[in-house]
């Protein structure tokens, strides 16, 4: 499939990819297996095969062969072990023991060596792939040496692997640091078959440049060796750059920049990041309290210290003051996210949403985050399940979903997983509200049919996107649910016709 794109190089981006022909939305541009899969940095104790959380204490489940963390299910099925096999043999050979921890919710530095170790094993097993795809990847050793984690990696990974693990004669310090850097800068998050988080290195996808408005999407299939399939999300003409994304798109510029600088060692200069209004969405803008219609926006989005100025009056404030206010708001959201999943949580999020109404632009990323929480709650928590929702709350959920879709059209345009999930959330209240209004005599047969057809189109688009996901994943399962719902809805439409 390499004919879908070609790799070029320039001083600003290094290696990057452009379309080699006109590409249609949804078209596959590459498939690849990971060079390595394993735990993320700073993971709490987890199973070294399936990545599920485990007790890292003395009584926690351990591999019966090497004594490192392994859940009971994986221990009972040793013949199926794939990812833990080589390190297990190494730990046994060199008598390397896992040191039990007291707090199994805190990061376990002993596990920081696991994914780099798997990378090193893969380097030995697949030297041709290493030379062709991995050796040319960025690892920013000069920038990383100035960072907080270099010395930590030197102790917990480099010296540990070359010392107690007995790899001094197989891998130099430079190669191990190169591997750590390649992982830090280029790895993508993966979800295991059980839904737990890890990281995987996909060097061909890693060629794609980053943008906070990506035009490439990917799906990972844990049930098929974590095979990755990348597609274009929108129609792309020949010669256009192909962009993936290394950060969460639904956060503000300051948050995205901080994440990219700390973990990927670069400053993003995509059109969205350079625009104080974030492509006209005002995703980070505040409402001015000194005038009626003014919005407070940054004078330089790439500088946290830059002044923020009102568009309607002379008011100014420091960037640090804005960041402090956002941190306080985010802390409130985080606190509510820890509440029990029930009606009190829903009420608390609605209260917070109203609280920020006079402070934040309607589409601000903080309000967008609250919308996402409310969408998840309406229709699911006791007292607010879908059949119980009155028309006014069905309309509320529709409004919340449409606001999110509006934002996604700017930041994740085209056939994306996020769009599909929101379309599924949106179709339900549209159907329920239309049926309710028909029963009340507000809607007649033909308008009812149009509303149901609108919902059917949403289900059709949703299932067509989610069928790209692993069939065993939550998204893959939802694809089948959406297809079944679509069939039922089409039958209802036939009856009306």
Walkthrough of the structure:
The chain has about 500 residues and is of the alpha+beta class. It has helices at about 70-75, 85-95, 115-125, 125-135, 140-145, 150-160, 175-185, 255-265, 270-275, 320-335, 345-355, 365-375, 390-410, 415-440, 445-465, 475-495; strands at about 5-10, 15-20, 30, 35-40, 190, 195-200, 210, 215-220, 225-230, 245, 285, 295-300, 310, 315. A four-stranded antiparallel β-sheet has the order 11-12-13-14. A three-stranded antiparallel β-sheet has the order 3-9-8, with no helix packed on it. Strands 4-6-5 form a three-stranded antiparallel β-sheet. β13 and β14 form a beta hairpin. α10 (about 320-335) packs antiparallel against α11 (about 345-355), α13 (about 390-410) runs antiparallel to α14 and α14 (about 415-440) runs antiparallel to α15 (about 445-465). The two termini are about 45 Å apart. The mean pLDDT is about 95.
Low-confidence stretches: none
Quaternary structure state of the chains depicted:
single chain
Structural class given helices, strands, pairing?
A: alpha+beta
Principal-axes geometry comes out as globular
Q: Could you give the count of β-strands?
A: 14
Q: Span between N and C termini?
A: 45 Å
How large is the count of helical segments? 16
Strand content bin: 5-15%
Physical arrangement of strands within the biggest beta sheet: 11-12-13-14
Order of helices and strands: EEEEHHHHHHHEEEEEEHHEEEEHHHHHHH
Rg on CA atoms, Å: 25 Å
Portion of residues in helices?
A: 40-55%
